[in-house]
Amino acid sequence: MRKIDLHIHTIAAPEGKDVAFEFDISKFKEYVDTAGLHAVAVTNHNLFNLEQFNEIADALQNVKVFPGIEIDYEDGHMLLIAENDDLDDFNTRCALVEAEHSANGKVRHAKLIEIFEDVSKYLLIPHHDKDPKIGRVHIDVLRDEITAGEVGSQKRFHRLLKKQDELVPVLFSDIRVKSSLDVSTVQGRQTYLKTNAEELSLSAIKAALQDKDKVFLSRTENHDFFEIFSDGQQLSHGLNVILGNRSSGKTHFLNKIVEMLGSDEKGVKYIKQFELTKIDEKEFNDLLEKQGGFVREEYLSAFKPVVQNVLEIDRSLTLQKIEEFTNSLVLYANNEQLQDEYSRAVLFNQRKLPVKRDGGINILIDAIKALLDSDSHKDVILKHLPEASLKAVLNELALQMKIITLDRLKREWVNELVSDISDGLQSRSSRPPVKHNDLSIYTVKLEKEKIRRFNAVAKAVKTNQTIRKEKKGKFTVEAYVRPYSGTQEVKNESKTNDISFKDAYEHYSDPFRYLSILKTKNLDKASLYKYFCKVRYQVLNEYQKQVSGGEMTEFNLLQRLQDAFQYEMLLVDEPESSFDNVFLKENVNKILKDISRELPVIVVTHNNTVGMLLKPDYIIYTQREIEEGEDKYYVYSGSPGEKTFSTADGSRMVDSHAILLEALEAGANAYNDRKRMYDTYKKN
Amino acid sequence: MKYLEIKNSKGLFNRDGVMIEIDQITAEDLLTIINHAHEEDFEIDEYTEAALPNKAHQLIYQNIYIKLTDFLSDKNQFNQQVDKLYEDAIGKYNADIPAEAEPEVDNINDFKEADAEEINPEDIPF
């Protein structure tokens, strides 16, 4: 087995792709030695530095060093690695890559062929399940040359391995070799190759990379495992359980993994002790409400603008105007004897000139502009509507708009003047004038229609109904609407105690009146649409019944663990802290098991229900021993059923039966005592 | 149906099917007429000064007539605007718009009730 890392940076990429760094050859040596590598490749972004490469190759005598380059190829990144035999030729070709990248930001397929001519001489490894990845079409073009694809994590390696007709996965460190590099953080990010070739040449590597059965993440040649530490400590791609006494290094083991993978945002999901807790009904409902907030917003999205629009209506004022208009009109008509020189003037009761509505001309102008300005569909538009015609329409509409606007401004000016004059005449005359003579029937009627429609919509909004159903595991999350059940619920919505909603709620069945009263209260006007219906959330179990207390906790647990699928690894520290054994066995174990089918899961536990009934794929046992007055920590591991567990280097072994009893049952004596006691009860 | 009529030199309006002299018109009557103004069979007699010798009838009839004809000239636009009113919300929530025959949405006396405060004579300090 040979261990390789063919993706290593020694020069910071220009253009801000990298934080600038100073290359440190001693770190390179340290990395190669610690990781136990057999071959490395120097792959900088779009450049190859021959001088530096020679320096590296001289310094690293015990390892094969390949010259390479990471090219911005088409839509992603691709490694191109050469045999270490004609460096001048490779250097010349890489200079062309550098020039092409400077000029065009990337290298297209044709250019790649032009530069390297016979690409089959090289090893090409595109970013595959790793960003920025190269699209399928571009890989297919080079399908004869590309057999392996780089992945971003152990989980992705395992996933690609299981897919048929897919590239052979490789996992590399992609490190920047600088003095501040902590080589302990790049453990487990190299690939093992199974090859019988005496010399690890580029063609030997290429041959191995044609066969999924020749690549591994563990020196044990087992696809179910990957190495997490360079000492050979491996983990299962499935479910790992860490056992051990208090202070034996369990949490330390987890923290080391977090340090290595946790820098990546979606690297490790780490659920610490006591983070998974029981939840009571109120907490549960609050949580649901919070998560479901967007469901209500979405539901009320069409109602909100209606409320905003209706809020502007003051119907009482309108009705008052009608009354004053009618009464004053009759009074005016019946008081002809009071006619004087002021009231005789036509302007005494002059109605204001109607100000014409623009008939939506603005919308038309914007639409034509949108047609003319469209970039994406210009050809389709111009195929059917000649540009000259569109411009002519736009010009004519603009002209009309100008006339309408001018007319409106004139009318407004006249109305203002008429109003001033009639006010003057009315104040001097003893004949009572007609009030609100500018009352518009159009406006009065439109208001009424708005209210009628608003009432209908508001009633429909609060009709009992389910507005969303979503399956989450065995649960169904349901959002439903119902009317408010009383003043208290409305008050809760306002989140204030100082406002009384009694007077408003009395008219809850008459939406416009209800709104008219709400609007007089000290509430955010933009939020009044929320006071018309209650959106509730409930979670139903598999029998479509409301969930019980235990099921609420289970659901919460599921929610907490749900996003684990997006991560590369899940670590859980003592899930037993908050749950009883039945719950652990029936719920926690099941969820953890499900997740472990998709990504590696590592669970620290003291609990036998978790530890044994979870049926782990791999067991890790941590032990602290005091040797010559000093604390020594050991990590043993093995698969269930193995008689002994051993340290990664195989130098120490423990009896698996004994340590399981020790860690999970408080030792063999306690276990036997308990067994005897259970038996006694059974006999009784 | 005819809502304003000039007959026998008098201006008349329709109150519950009975034609009444126009100087008796109240705000409720006017609101009722307004509420029917968009209907297909809404009819009013054209105002002609000569047909109404009574000056008071002239003034009231003319004023109301002008307001109604202003609206009638915009009736099509009004109907179009109403058809589109809140159509997104009506569609989304399956709102059922009640027929015209349903009770009126507003009552002219509502605002008076809301404003009227009862005064207890004993509270007056003089």
Keyword list:
heterodimer; A: 684 residues; alpha/beta; TIM Barrel; 4 domains; ten-stranded mixed sheet; eight-stranded mixed sheet; 25 helices; 43% helix; B: 126 residues; alpha+beta; 5 helices
Summarize the structure.
By secondary structure, chain A is an alpha/beta fold.
How would you portray this structure in words?
The complex is a heterodimer of chains A (684) and B (126). Chain A has 684 residues and is an alpha/beta fold. Chain A has four domains: 2-226, Metal-dependent hydrolases (TIM Barrel), CATH 3.20.20.140; 250-267 and 567-683, no CATH class; 283-310 and 453-540, no CATH class; 336-431. Helices cover 43% and strands 19% of the residues of chain A. In chain A, helix 3 packs antiparallel against helix 4. Chain B has a domain at 2-74. In chain B, a hairpin with a 2-residue loop joins strand 1 and strand 2. The longest helix of chain B is centred in the middle third of the chain and has 19 residues, at 55-73. With 126 residues, chain B is α+β, with helices and mostly antiparallel strands. The N and C termini of chain B lie far apart (55 Å). The model of chain B has no long low-confidence stretch (mean pLDDT 84). Chains A and B meet through helix 11, helix 12 and helix 17 of A and helix 1, helix 2, helix 3, helix 4 and helix 5 of B.
Q: Tell me the fraction of residues in β-strands of chain A, as a range.
A: 15-25%
Globally, the shape of chain A reads flat
Overall average pLDDT of chain B: 84
- Put simply, the count of helices of chain A is 25
Structural class of chain A, by secondary structure, is alpha/beta
Query: Whole-Å distance between the termini of chain A?
Result: 60 Å
SSE inventory with pairings:
The complex is a heterodimer of chains A (684) and B (126).
Chain A: E1 2-9, H1 25-35, E2 39-45, H2 50-59, E3 64-73, E4 76-81, H3 87-104, H4 109-116, E5 123-129, H5 136-141, E6 148-151, H6 154-162, E7 168-171, E8 175-176, E9 191-193, H7 202-208, E10 215-216, E11 225-227, E12 234-236, E13 239-244, H8 250-261, E14 268-271, H9 281-291, H10 293-300, H11 303-311, H12 315-333, H13 341-344, H14 361-373, H15 378-384, H16 387-428, H17 441-461, E15 465-472, E16 475-482, H18 487-494, H19 502-505, H20 511-518, E17 534-540, H21 549-562, E18 569-573, H22 581-596, E19 601-604, H23 608-611, E20 618-627, E21 630-638, E22 644-647, E23 653-655, H24 656-665, H25 668-683
Parallel strand pairs in A: 1-2, 1-8, 2-3, 5-6, 6-7, 13-19, 13-20, 14-18, 18-19
Antiparallel strand pairs in A: 1-9, 3-4, 4-5, 9-10, 11-12, 15-16, 16-17, 20-21, 21-22, 22-23
Chain B: E1 2-7, E2 10-15, E3 18-21, H1 27-36, E4 43-44, H2 55-73, H3 75-84, H4 87-92, H5 110-115
Parallel strand pairs in B: 1-4
Antiparallel strand pairs in B: 1-2, 2-3
